[in-house]
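Deviation from plan, reported transparently: magnesium ion complex.
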Amino acid sequence: MNLEPFIYEIWDSVYYILPSYAANAAPVIFGGGRPIDAGRIFRDGRPLLGPRKTYKGLVSGLLAGELVALAQRRPIEGFLLSLGAVLGDLVGSFIKRRLGWSPGAPLPIIDQLDFVAGALLMASFVSTPTTRQLIWILLVTPPIHLLTNFIAYLLKLKKEPW
Ligand code: CTP
Ligand code: MG
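Because the crystal trials were delayed, the predicted structure below was used instead.
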């Protein structure tokens, strides 16, 4: 079997979503400090987003995503992918808090795909991947996310290995 077309197709799909990867990864390095929810508690008595969703994380995510977007010469589309990624990640944390999961506790699928879902939704104002690209994005993002998080853990950038 010739794998080359598959590898090309997977790379093409990852290339499309790449700004969102940068937007999701940067906060691990540059995040921290003032939390976006300012310690606010939701009506269920749990934190709105939790202390790990910070302004520095949000801004560094947007900047890192835009850097990739500019390198790819798609500033608007890439900005929407980055904005969607950081917002999708916040929605993911909001959902985790509502379920009673502590910050950092693993929630499979949501943890790996919240930012991609946000990115695709936001970018849909200007573009949509093909169905095949979408399937590849959904298939390859979770393992890539888990692997990069594990590396970040080994580098002591992250407290949890997931
Ligand atoms: N981060 C941040 N600001 C953000 C998003 C992320 O500072 N807006 C940083 C935090 O240090 C966070 C790390 O990036 O711990 C990894 O983000 P993520 O894995 O999404 O958060 P969790 O620590 O798992 O927290 P949660 O349970 O809320 O998802
Ligand atoms: Mg998350």
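The two ends are 33 Å apart (CA to CA). We consider this an acceptable substitute for the interim report.
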